[in-house]
Amino acid sequence: xxxxxxxxxxxxxxxxxxxxxxxxxxxxxxxxxxxxxxxxxxxxxxxxxxxxxxxxxxxxxxxxxxxxxxxxxxxxxxxxxxxxxxxxxxxxxxxxxxxxxxxxxxxxxxxxxxxxxxxxxxxxxxxxxxxxxxxxxxxxxxxxxxxxxxxxxxxxxxxxxxxxxxxxxxxxxxxxxxxxxxxxxxxxxxxxxxxxxxxxxxxxxxxxxxxxxxxxxxxxxxxxxxxxxxxxxxxxxxxxxxxxxxxxxxxxxxxxxxxxxxxxxxxxxxxxxxxxxxxxxxxxxxxxxxxxxxxxxxxxxxxxxxxxxxxxxxxxxxxxxxxxxxxxxxxxxxxxxxxxxxxxxxxxxxxxxxxxxxxxxxxxxxxxxxxxxxxxxxxxxxxxxxxxxxxxxxxxxxxxxxxxxxxxxxxxxxxxxxxxxxxxxxxxxxxxxxxxxxxxxxxxxxxxxxxxxxxxxxxxxxxxxxxxxxxxxxxxxxxxxxxxxxxxxxxxxxxxxxxxxxxxxxxxxxxxxxxxxxxxx
Amino acid sequence: xxxxxxxxxxxxxxxxxxxxxxxxxxxxxxxxxxxxxxxxxxxxxxxxxxxxxxxxxxxxxxxxxxxxxxxxxxxxxxxxxxxxxxxxxxxxxxxxxxxxxxxxxxxxxxxxxxxxxxxxxxxxxxxxxxxxxxxxxxxxxxxxxxxxxxxxxxxxxxxxxxxxxxxxxxxxxxxxxxxxxxxxxxxxxxxxxxxxxxxxxxxxxxxxxxxxxxxxxxxxxxxxxxxxxxxxxxxxxxxxxxxxxxxxxxxxxxxxxxxxxxxxxxxxxxxxxxxxxxxxxxxxxxxxxxxxxxxxxxxxxxxxxxxxxxxxxxxxxxxxxxxxxxxxxxxxxxxxxxxxxxxxxxxxxxxxxxxxxxxxxxxxxxxxxxxxxxxxxxxxxxxxxxxxxxxxxxxxxxxxxxxxxxxxxxxxxxxxxxxxxxxxxxxxxxxxxxxxxxxxxxxxxxxxxxxxxxxxxxxxxxxxxxxxxxxxxxxxxxxxxxxxxxxxxxxxxxxxxxxxxxxxxxxxxxxxxxxxxxxxx
Lengths: 521, 521
Known about the structure:
2 copies of one chain form a homodimer.
Chain A: E1 15-17, H1 21-25, E2 33-34, H2 40-43, H3 46-49, E3 58-60, H4 62-72, E4 83-85, E5 91-95, E6 98-104, E7 113-119, E8 122-126, H5 143-152, E9 156-160, H6 173-186, E10 191-194, H7 200-212, E11 216-220, H8 222-233, E12 244-245, E13 258-262, H9 272-277, E14 291-294, H10 303-315, E15 319-322, H11 336-346, E16 350-354, H12 358-370, E17 385-389, E18 394-400, E19 406-409, E20 412-413, H13 418-430, E21 432-439, E22 451-455, H14 464-480, H15 489-508, E23 513-520
């Protein structure tokens, strides 16, 4: 039900959602949608696919419910959702023969829930996104719950692989909070903390620390404000009266009484932090003595934009802390050590690594084997494969179902196809050149000098010589075409594309997209 | 004299070279070019800028000389270079009053040389790219040399900041070799090692280990072959007769007698490794039991393509080792601990961090202060600033000189300007739509239905409705234009751009580049 953000290979699109062609055909079999938590990579596709899945009931905890309801406001044409509120510990009948047991798992947003599906062939456990939490002595919390699940018997365990390559155990959120508090205490001027607005658990703690240190907290960025509003409404963020102020008010307080919580820790060009850095923010201007804290990891692909953030903050005199220097971020995903611990408690017969690239899932499979799962019982599946589960088997069938990206771009869902992306990539690399020939339909002669427009290739105004040469070659070409009565546009176009393309390549070693148009009068 | 590879913001270009407009005007003052080593980020711009700098003598060690001579083959129009061969320890008179003392620094390519410029105002030391090397007991090599430099007195020390944020000391190349040997010994099938072809020191060691284990070595990838050839010619790679085989020959040997050394560790789409992975290599097909070793770091920006490499190798059954799992790569750049050690030996009066983003250079400045440089004597300069050095001062002037990227794209140097890149980025994000109106010059009426072509926007063949609507609107527009005698093309174009743009945005929430063309007959 989640969305995936665009990659280098999918320029310009907003996001990618799952392909539900296969499920749509079987929608009468869909008893329920179970949401584990409210992060967009787990709920973002909901309004796009819900109707196609027959609008089944959705099971979700309270904060997840609030987040999907908020998102539904932007999709007035999506069907009204039928949400069944659950809390961890609940057991719910999803269909005649499937019951769901919900249980809490630690993650970075409250009320994340794992689920055990009790089915006639056995219990299937999905652990959502999770990590382990540790107390001050370094002992993990809540393992008894997982042990209980193990005792019920687990047919298949589906386990988060996002951090499966990382050795060791989770950095405790306690450590993160302790380090943040130290940095905050040392700051003499204003403090700005940039983090994901979805890390509600941490944001709640940061607000608590700010109160302890006598700082007001201003929220900056749309998603920061809406997420905190939702979390406050449900009691997950407990700010005292007067703690939260608007960004406009920060100048009413001394610098050492102010903290700003902002979006944009990944260097996103339109997020709150970038506006501050670029001097475009109406109320917040960086000044020497400000302390900026990037309490987040760097999502692969964002390295350069985060580098720009750090550079520009430092250039403007701010003191910058980031998680590469000190533990001020802990991933929401369990590393190898935590995963091994949980597998040993659940003792599943089959293990299916989910979430994360193939290599990470393969690493998770290896952890499973080291933690007691039989070598042959690790199931590495790829998108589009189908498995059949029976009492004693987990069989990957030969069936293949459509699983290719469905791209959302503006209002279009799925209308940006590979051919459009290929053009975008080509245009980005080499630009294009449109050549318009206006010809006499009967005599095939040029009625005027060819019109040429170009973008992203070379700046034509500075390259009159190339323009003249192209026009000269086209005129030459047209006179050399054997005397014919009628223009054959396709023939002329191919000729133009080849000859002009060849000339430009020789001249510039570049291959712009050449788009010939023949206007017959 | 180096080149920089393109970034996300500079799509389609080949590479970026320095702007020498300022130096060109002062070329009569340029006494020499000193090259510290043969990596492209230090020598790649040479053929492009040499003539503009007045072709001064170039000082270089033997392998650097061989590499720039090889590169010069591709630039027949560049001036013939005047290369002065130096070896570490040499002292050379560059001009009337400037002498250069060359000294070896450890890096990943042989004969990397630092330089001390002895000038009337004092000694300026540039340390090239460097790290420290350690013996088996963990003691750094060659510090006496640096201590000697310090004793001569150092006015300004220019120091590599690439790894300045990393705490601690360099991973010893000995450790890397030990780990590689262990992995190689454990491999039962073929071994393929992907690394930068410029890491000649490591490649030389890998070939030695291969010989020890009785494996033949096949080189894959153009730059791997040419670099090893150069290094062999100069004695830096000493392969026994018969060790090196061609990739075509690998199938003549048992799997456990073969090692492949390949380019493409960054997942570059046209490099050797990618051809193997995609099944496009004529001689090398992956089979289960192959061991692939990625002995390199991941250059920021390449995270996703390296992930693809790991995924696809694992999918095809290869065992994969990478430097995230075990120390099989050591950076050529000194981390904080090493830098501090060297600063303490050199005792410079002024310190100027070079190489690396601003944040890294600022971190290096901090290291300098912690290592005894006076707080006020750290000089953080940005591209385009000018400093004036006197006996007692290092003054950053107010002068600003052109320093913006010069982009090389095909045969063009500097002709891809910001306007072209802006168009490329826009085309990549939203695509474009060309609208061609053929109008009667006198009556201003449309002579035919408007022609529309589009790329990278939506696939028009699947969206006939939108096409029809655009045409309908254009016709409506033209009839509503107050009756005029002559067409005013600019007015019509602006109208079209606005109205069609607005319609498309409402319909699709996308803003393709709209290029109206008015053909008057």
